[in-house]
């Protein structure tokens, strides 16, 4: 068994970022930006009114002042003249503020009669003008790499770009293995169970920005596994589920080696997930997850998601952790780093009393994993622990 951090290092050592492609803005959500976006203009490109009202000179700002309205500026319709003393320009939000005007008085602070306005009392100090370039200047950058959130895409659009250079999405071929497995929705024999893990992993892959390809369930034979590996060709990550341990029917390691996997590690000091394996697999990477449903999902959060991120060109870093307060005590830990299914509440995080790695019902209730280091002493409520959000 090697520590989780060393396993991650060995995994990251196998990674080269995938090639890039260009996508339209509407296809960019969740993709990893690989080339910075450079603004081609200031935003706003002119000093813009932040309110509907009247643009005036500072010297004219006095309660009860009467000013003559000389024209109008609206968004997309600049006013060509300038605002002189004693004058006011009718202006709307987003319109360019004309020369001479130094502030915009909200229309609620004025009374209009014909072409005259009278300023009210208690006009706020706010000038209600957004200076040119206050958001960004020509030449400013949206920095890469980054996973594109809706606000990033809006910012890129605002910088006047309609296509973005992003990583090709990593393709993950998922192979469930085991003679006992049948697909959901069928009619299983009493000694069979439903193959559930691939569907949870499919979700994790898609959430992390990859594309998941579910292959047919492979039986516990070298031939069936060889065939599955053949079907997985072309994927960036080959993800197997089950058959990773030491039993007579746990053949994934042997079959993968026969199909050309160069092993980077097998067995990691984490709980659940000890029999995890990984290696180079031709042009792809292979990650062999344990079959227990919670083990496979926890290993995906701890290893697969960081792997997908690194392949996508993001920094190779472990799953982010935050500090949380324990709302209930924790027992002392054994020699493996323990990822306890837990729920957050107003008083902090509480580990579920049942932690068996077969319990999807518990994982489904959990919103985080408490990470307890190997050999950690018992912890009291109120102590601080590290957690990974689910
Ligand atoms: N003698 C030992 N036995 C075991 C050890 C050990 O160190 N020595 N480790 C245990 C640990 S820890 C784990 S984790 C499991 C993992 O074993 P495998 O990866 O070989 O998993 P399987 O035996 O194939 O399956 C375990 C369990 O999960 C069910 N399963 C498998 N695939 C799926 C799927 N796609 N969907 C739903 N459920 C699945 C399978 O039916 C088994 O019940 O080994 C321990 N044993
Ligand atoms: O490590 Mo196994 O994943 O405990 O259940």
From TrEMBL:
SUPFAM superfamilies found in the cross-reference section: MoeA C-terminal domain-like, MoeA N-terminal region -like, Molybdenum cofactor biosynthesis proteins
Protein purpose: Catalyzes the insertion of molybdate into adenylated molybdopterin with the concomitant release of AMP.
GO molecular function per UniProt: metal ion binding; molybdopterin molybdotransferase activity
Keyword Membrane annotated: no
A Pfam family it matches: MoCF_biosynth
Pathway linked to the protein: Cofactor biosynthesis; molybdopterin biosynthesis
Swiss-Prot/TrEMBL keywords: Magnesium, Metal-binding, Molybdenum, Molybdenum cofactor biosynthesis, Transferase
InterPro entries per the UniProt record, alphabetical: MoaB/Mog-like_dom_sf, MoaB/Mog_dom, MoeA-like, MoeA_C_domain_IV, MoeA_C_domain_IV_sf, MoeA_linker/N, MoeA_linker/N_sf
E.C. number: 2.10.1.1
Single Gene Ontology BP annotation: Mo-molybdopterin cofactor biosynthetic process
Protein name (record): Molybdopterin molybdenumtransferase
Signal peptide: none
Domain of life: Bacteria
Membership in a protein family: Belongs to the MoeA family.
Domain MoaB/Mog: 173-310
Keyword Transferase among record annotations: yes
GO CC annotation, single: cytosol
Cofactor(s) recorded in Swiss-Prot or TrEMBL: Mg(2+)
Listed Gene3D superfamilies: MoaB/Mog-like domain, MoeA, C-terminal, domain IV, Molybdopterin biosynthesis moea protein, domain 2, Molybdopterin biosynthesis moea protein, domain 3
């Amino acid at each position: 068994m090697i520590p989780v951090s060393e396993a991650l290092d060995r995994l990251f050592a196998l990674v080269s970022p995938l090639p890039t492609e260009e996508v339209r803005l509407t296809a960019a959500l969740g993709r990893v930006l690989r080339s910075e976006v450079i603004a081609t203009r200031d935003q706003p490109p002119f000093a813009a009114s932040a309110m509907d009202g009247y643009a005036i000179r500072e010297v004219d700002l006095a309660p009860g002042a009467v000013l003559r309205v000389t024209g109008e500026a609206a968004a997309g319709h600049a006013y060509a003249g300038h605002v002189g003393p004693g004058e006011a320009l009718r202006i709307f939000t987003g319109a360019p503020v004309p020369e001479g005007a130094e502030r915009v008085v909200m229309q609620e602070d004025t009374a209009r009669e014909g072409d005259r306005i009278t300023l009210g009392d208690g006009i706020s100090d706010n000038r209600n003008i957004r200076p040119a370039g206050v958001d960004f200047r020509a030449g400013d950058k949206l920095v890469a790499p980054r996973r594109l959130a809706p606000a990033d895409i809006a910012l890129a659009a605002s910088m006047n770009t309609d296509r973005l250079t992003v990583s090709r999405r990593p393709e993950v071929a998922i192979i469930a293995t085991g003679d006992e497995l049948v697909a959901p929705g069928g009619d299983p024999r009493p000694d069979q169970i439903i193959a559930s893990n691939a569907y949870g992993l499919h979700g994790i892959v898609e959430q992390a920005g990859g594309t998941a390809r579910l292959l047919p369930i492979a039986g516990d034979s070298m031939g069936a596994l060889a065939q599955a590996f053949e079907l997985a060709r072309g994927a960036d990550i080959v993800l197997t589920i089950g058959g990773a341990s030491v039993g007579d029917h746990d053949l994934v390691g042997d079959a993968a080696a026969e199909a050309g996997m160069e092993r980077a590690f097998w067995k990691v000091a984490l709980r659940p997930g000890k029999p995890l394996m990984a290696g180079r697999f031709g042009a792809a990477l292979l990650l062999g997850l344990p079959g227990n449903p919670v083990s496979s999902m926890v290993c995906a959060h701890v290893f697969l998601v960081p792997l997908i991120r690194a392949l996508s060109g993001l920094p190779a870093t472990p799953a982010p952790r935050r500090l949380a307060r324990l709302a209930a005590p924790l027992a002392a830990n054994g020699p493996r780093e323990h990822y306890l299914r837990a729920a957050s509440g107003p008083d902090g995080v509480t580990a579920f009393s049942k932690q068996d790695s077969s319990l999807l019902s518990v994982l489904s209730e959990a919103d985080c994993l408490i990470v307890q280091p190997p050999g950690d002493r018992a912890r009291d409520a109120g102590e601080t622990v590290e957690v990974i959000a689910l």
